[in-house]
Protein: Bifunctional protein FolD
Organism: Lactobacillus intestinalis DSM 6629
Amino acid sequence: MGKILDGKSLANLRAQKLKKEVEILKQDGINPLFCVINIGDDPASKVYVKTKKRRAQEMGIEQKIYQLPSTESEESVLNLIDKLNQDPSVHGIMVQMPTPEQINVNHLLERIDPEKDVDGLTPTNIGHLWQSDHFVEPATAIGIMKLLEHYKINVAGKNVAIIGRSNIVGKPLAALMLEKDASVSVLHSKTKSLSTYTRMADIIIVAAGQENLLTSEMVKKGAVVIDVGINRVEGHLVGDVDFKQVLSKARWITPVPGGVGPLTVELLMEQVVKLTRRAHGIK
Amino acid sequence: MGKILDGKSLANLRAQKLKKEVEILKQDGINPLFCVINIGDDPASKVYVKTKKRRAQEMGIEQKIYQLPSTESEESVLNLIDKLNQDPSVHGIMVQMPTPEQINVNHLLERIDPEKDVDGLTPTNIGHLWQSDHFVEPATAIGIMKLLEHYKINVAGKNVAIIGRSNIVGKPLAALMLEKDASVSVLHSKTKSLSTYTRMADIIIVAAGQENLLTSEMVKKGAVVIDVGINRVEGHLVGDVDFKQVLSKARWITPVPGGVGPLTVELLMEQVVKLTRRAHGIK
């Protein structure tokens, strides 16, 4: 029977430390400020933005939301980013995805000052990540690494299978896993036989957005399974893993909800604080 | 019996086209200029720099070599890069690796204007590569993709094993292979069982710098084998693949020399010309 990798508890533990750090910064007159640009009316985006805002408040971090209409032009968003880049009171900027059709999200990301890039998604910071010389990382990917570290699950020399090749999870996680000496396979919808890879994997990360994608036949006994999926099924949230079945075979497994999700939000907050410290030259 | 992926012939074929492109640019008064910074006395580096210079001359591309002493300070090299960045007659800049101890090569790469980054190794261009939105790529990696393309070897849905995780070959190649829908495993010295991966691979790329690393038992019948290694053994150049044995099992294989090497130099020249065209706003 597998044990639970409790992301929620770890997030809360880290949050306590973070809250104190923010208090100390504030005593020095430094107020971390984090700006979120949300374009359009995507309901899921609005929920995510609100969740972040609530968490930021709990941490003592100020979050400003720039809610723009779905018809906003790319140029106008770029101008907003320029303004936030230049404003020394702003420590972090992120663009909530997805963005409407008329906007090329890469153009927006490219414009964000890498020193204010809380999401670690500017080209420069992605480059730093792959060069193993980084100061900010995509939150979900680094959250997963912190979770494994917390439970003393060593990744060096392990066979790691990552299902999903998104810019925000799969690819940056591959970089972080390689940096820690894992053997990394990146798999996706065009992979012919997922199970060939997953059956030999010591650690499986599923970030595909498809319920029950990973079943117990695909998992080696004793494997570590990290479920990044969030799917809404009959009013419930479920991940990409057939949790009940896989639980009996895995050694460690993350639940959904309460696994990777809370850590993503926590790590985002930590990166706001990290960038605030950098901006003020505090180690 | 495997067939030869003739990198040398393909490089020569592409060079003919490139030469004509350069002629046309020159008729318009545009002279591609490529600057190589070589720090110290590494004998292999000097050979590589010379090889590039000869090839550039054949193409009609001017190459300037900045040969600096092994004691040169990082700051002084950064100043040189600034100067070349600002000089509109310079279209491409590259730093020959390895650099001496006192110099952090990442600092140099970070300083190169991404628009003059012929090697595709600045953080920004590495980021573009992983975002699938790139205009310049590390030469060896893109050379391998062009070789496969030339021989109509489709990578989509294929199992690709890359041995070696360098910033100049393994990692960028993983990005390009993923972009073309391959399932990609990145393996290295800490991988516990290379053959578990290589035996199920449709395409194997070996870039580890170790002679006879890939033996025929490790290769599936009918696989495509790309050898990026260059090792000097008793005065001969050999790759990382046990060529004779693997030849009988593979469907396609690159020789060493005459495989990936000539394509690397050719693609570097092509990127100088590409950056020259971009600088002058020519599509």
In short: Chain A touches chain B through 35 residues (CB under 8 Å). Residues 7-27 of chain A form the longest helix (21 residues). Chain A has a mean pLDDT of 97. Chain A has two domains: 29-113, 139-262.
